[in-house]
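Amino acid chain
________________
===
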Amino acid sequence: MKAYQIKKYSKDEPLYLSEVDLPSIKDNEVLVEIHAAGVNLLDTMIKTGEFKLFLPYKTPLVNGHDMAGTVIKIGAGVKGFKVGDEVYSRVGDYRIGTFAEYIAVQDSDIALKPQKLSMLEAASIPLVGLTAWQALVEIAKIKKGQKVFIQAGSGGVGTFAIQLAKHLGAYVTTTTSAANVNWVKDLGADLVIDYRNEDFETVLKEYDVVLHSNRDPKVMEASFRILKKGGVLISLVGPPTPEFAEEINLPWYFKLVTWLLSSKAKRYAQKLNVNYKFLFMRAEGSQLTAITKLIENGTIKPVIDKVFPFDQTNEAMAYVETGRAKGKVVISIK
């Protein structure tokens, strides 16, 4: 089968279109013919080696985390799926490889694709949907009437998180450029701040939750200061914490590294009597099934910026790296 591989960690090296073996499946796995793959910033970070300390993949490896496709074979222990099912998934860590024609996926990591969505639309959902769900439902436990600040509202995670937070009953604030203000309001944002011309810290006070995705340390400190006492900042960009290291079963010395990396942020949060959490989202088919229900009833709608053909996978990656995508970028494979 054809697949796009990382030959070595590099900012400059492209992905290489290669001929690789068709994956074999274990008892708890299904073989999926991939129709479409979502492209995420995480894919570019894996390629450049930013996560090799915590996810030490061996090269060459096939890149890609999001996909939608059709089940063509099932393992002996698989109960919830059958050949012919249309499914979607953010595949599990160490099982990545959606920039390919086929993939073996653990049955606990997939869900039936929403019937109302095309394969392209479905492929745009899993990673951003699970990220927003795990941040706002699992960690923050958003309640009706709470105030939530979602940074970068026009990005992939932002467009989904705005819709989910609004569904949960929150008052939603986000940042974007002036050109996108009305667009993110249509997604459900109550208050929109033009980050180029306004300082969010002068406007926002007493927030319950910040969904943080900006790498500037000054933005993180300002985000802590807008929280009410007991509020929580959930960061998607780090620094990682010892709790994260514990969750993914890293050795003790990695826990020490994450303690050192996160100590400044944790101390600052403690000083303000607020909380700091780092989220590195995980594959979770059951949560994706819950998201499917919100899509089917019209609560959540996919937001796609551009679709690239399979032979332009590197161009799709480059476009995501610009940070200018409004919503998601998707690769059409079949």
